[in-house]
Amino acid sequence: MKSKRGQLSGRLRPRQVLLLCAGLDLLGLVLSAALVDRLDGTDLLRHPHWLLPFGLIYIGFSWLFGSYTLLKLPRLRLSLVAVRLGLSALASALLVVLAYWLFRLPVNFTLGHRRVQLALLAGMSLWALVQRLWLRRLARPHQRPGLSLLDQTENQQQRLLPSHLPEEALLLDDLPWSDSLSVQRQLKRAADGLVSLLLLLVTLPLIALAALLIWLEDRGPVLYVQKRSGLMGKSFQLFKLRTMRQTAPQAPATWTVRGDRRITRIGGLLRRVRLDELPQLLNVLRGEMSLIGPRPERPELERDLEERIRHYRKRHWMPPGLSGWAQVCAPYAASVEEAELKLSYDLYYLRHWNTGLDLLILLKTVKTVLKARGR
C-alpha cells in the first residue's frame, strides 16, 4: 500500500506545492499571532485588517527572495532556507516600521512595536522553516500509475523535451489556443490590448528618459527595428530600445552572449531591468505580439534551428510574447543547445496554456524585473 506522502506527492504539481506553501505561511501567521497574544497579552488577532496585510507583505518578500522556489531545487540546504527566510522577515519588519513612522499610526498598532514584531516573525520563520522542509519531502518525484516516464518528467520539470516527443504528441488541433471561440482566448486578446495600452501610457516617461540616455551616449538612433518571426511564421518588425553599438546592415546574425562587448553601458542597464523591451508594447497593440507567449526569434537564426531541433516550428503556433514560460524558466539562449532547452518550455506552454499560467508568468516577469536579472 502506498504511503500518504506518496499519494499526496503524486497528486500535487510543483505550482500547487508553492501555493500550498504560501497558504501554510498565512496559517503560521495566525498561529504565531495567537501565541504572542497568549504570552505577551497583545491583541493581534483582534485586528485582522492589520494582520492580513502584514501576512501578504511577508509572502510577497518570501516570493521575491526565493524562499518558495527553493522547493524546486534537487537538494535543499538548511542554511539557504534560513538565509532567505531571514531576509523575508527583515524586509517585512523594515517595511512595517517605515509605514509606522510615515503614517503616524496609532499607539495601539501593536505590529509596530519592536518586541511584538520580533516574537511574531520568529514564530513565523520557525514555522516556515519546518513546513518547507516537510513540503520539500512531499514534492519529491513520485511515480504515478498510468503515466509514462515522459509524462512523469513533464509533470515535474514543467517542460517537454523535443528530442523525446513523438510527432503525434503535439498537434495543432489539440492545443488550447486552437479553439478560436474559447473565452480564455478572447480574454487574452482583450487583456493584451488594455494592459499594453495602460503600460505604454504609464511607462512613457521612462521610455523617453531611456531614449535620451541612449542618444547622449553615442548620438545614435534610440530605436532598434528588427525582423522577427510571428504567428505561423509570418514576419513582422519588432521595436526595441537600442542597447548595442551600431553594426553594418549586412552583418550576419549572431547570438548575444554574456558579457557581449557590443552592448553599451546604458544598454546593459536597460537590459538588466528589461526596459529595452517596452517599445514592443506597440507590437502588442498592433496585434503582432501578445504580452505572454514564445519569444519571437530572428528568421536568419531560425533556419538553422529548425533543421537541428525537432518540433521547433511549433513554437509559432501561438502569438509571440514580450515574456513567456521559457523566458522566466531558462536563461537567454546563446547556442543551439540552449535554444532547445528554451523550446522545451515553449512546448509545455503550448500544451498547457491557460489564463492561470499567463498570470503566473506575469508574476515571475515582475520578479525578474525587480531583481534586475535580465541580460
Ordered list of secondary-structure elements with their pairings:
Blueprint: H1 4-11, H2 14-40, H3 48-64, H4 78-102, H5 114-138, H6 149-157, H7 183-218, E1 223-229, E2 235-241, H8 265-272, H9 280-285, E3 290-292, H10 299-308, E4 321-323, H11 325-329, H12 336-352, H13 355-370
Parallel strand pairs: 3-4
Antiparallel strand pairs: 1-2
Helix pairs in contact: 2-3, 2-5, 3-4, 4-5, 7-8
In total, how many beta strands?
4
Helix percent reads 55-70%
Strand order of the largest sheet: 1-2
End-to-end distance: 49 Å
One letter per element, helices H and strands E, the order comes to HHHHHHHEEHHEHEHHH
Gyration radius, to the nearest Å?
Answer: 24 Å
Report the average pLDDT across residues. 85
- How would you sum up the global shape? globular
What count of structural domains?
Answer: 2
| Global structural class | mainly alpha
Total number of helices: 13
Low-confidence stretches: 1-10
Largest sheet: 2 strands, antiparallel
Quaternary form: single chain
| Strand percent estimate | 5-15%
Description:
With 375 residues, the chain is mainly α. It folds into two domains: 4-138, no CATH class; 162-247 and 257-370, no CATH class. It has helices at residues 4-11, 14-40, 48-64, 78-102, 114-138, 149-157, 183-218, 265-272, 280-285, 299-308, 325-329, 336-352, 355-370; strands spanning 223-229, 235-241, 290-292, 321-323. The strands form two sheets. It has a two-stranded antiparallel sheet with strand order 1-2. The chain has a two-stranded parallel sheet with strand order 3-4. Strand 3, helix 10 (299-308) and strand 4 form a beta-alpha-beta unit. The longest helix has 36 residues, at 183-218. The chain is globular. Residues 1-10 have low confidence and may be disordered.
